[in-house]
Amino acid sequence: xxxxxxxxxxxxxxxxxxxxxxxxxxxxxxxxxxxxxxxxxxxxxxxxxxxxxxxxxxxxxxxxxxxxxxxxxxxxxxxxxxxxxxxxxxxxxxxxxxxxxxxxxxxxxxxxxxxxxxxxxxxxxxxxxxxxxxxxxxxxxxxxxxxxxxxxxxxxxxxxxxxxxxxxxxxxxxxxxxxxxxxxxxxxxxxxxxxxxxxxxxxxxxxxxxxxxxxxxxxxxxxxxxxxxxxxxxxxxxxxxxxxxxxxxxxxxxxxxxxxxxxxxxxxxxxxxxxxxxxxxxxxxxxxxxxxxxxxxxxxxxxxxxxxxxxxxxxxxxxxxxxxxxxxxxxxxxxx
Length: 336
Prior knowledge:
Putative odorant or sperm cell receptor. The chain crosses the membrane at residues 42-64, 76-95, 115-137, 157-179, 209-242, 254-277, 289-306. This protein is mainly α. It has a single domain, classed as Rhopdopsin 7-helix transmembrane proteins, CATH 1.20.1070.10. Helix content is 71%, strand content 3%. The chain contains twelve helices and three strands, in the order αβαααβαααβααααα. The protein has helices at residues 2-10, 38-68, 75-92, 95-101, 111-144, 149-152, 155-180, 198-201, 210-245, 250-276, 284-306, 309-329; strands spanning 28-31, 108-110, 190-191. Strands 2-1-3 form a three-stranded mixed β-sheet. The termini are far apart. Residues 1-23 and 332-336 have low confidence and may be disordered.
């Protein structure tokens, strides 16, 4: 990596002469947020607060249901519960601060906090990409190779898939941070977004990073694009396999896969657009960022699990049991 920087500097493609350069680092960044309108800020505060609370409640409910229901201890629900965990993390790395910033006149974030947001963003998104591929592999094995499903999707394989997801996410975010931390930030310090991400942060570096910045950031976009194409191919193969085996079940499978694909599209679409074409300064980048950090974690519990009849029954049973237990523990007072 550092050899590539040296070569690019030698030919004047990456950095200017560093002689006499002031390496003083900014202590904080200023976030523009989503809007300056007081009316829209109140509206966004209410809307995003509701979305965030419902996201946390829905994903926690799914985790609790899967962990406490023995007949849901299967590979598919094991992967779904891990998806819920990642969605809670992805929804929490920047959303709470964004919500509180709606009532702040000057929205700032420390340099360390900004780097932390970049770290967790790429950790959780990288992990979710690999986990979504693992989930599509699970459905492929279950439908196309049902006789070998229990052998292939063993407990060890499932745990290995989850560990691999987190490992890939960690390695991905470390590679991005190794690039970012090497850069000097001496000002300006204004970020036209509601959280810190590579395309907007590295533009504030005090050296010319256009060529290498394009290469590093576009790598994330290419990875997302390839993963999206793999998922699309797997869904097509599964649909074709179901259609060949059963005409009555094809409509249900088509509906399920379509719903899954909508979530995949909402997650991968913004990532591909933002990272394949960085430094565009389009206002739409903010909107797309909202989709994969707020809306997708909110929709995943609904589309991936609550549309599943078995999961829906288990969730309703848990809720009814909790309500019944609450009623039994509530003290009753008699009127003398």
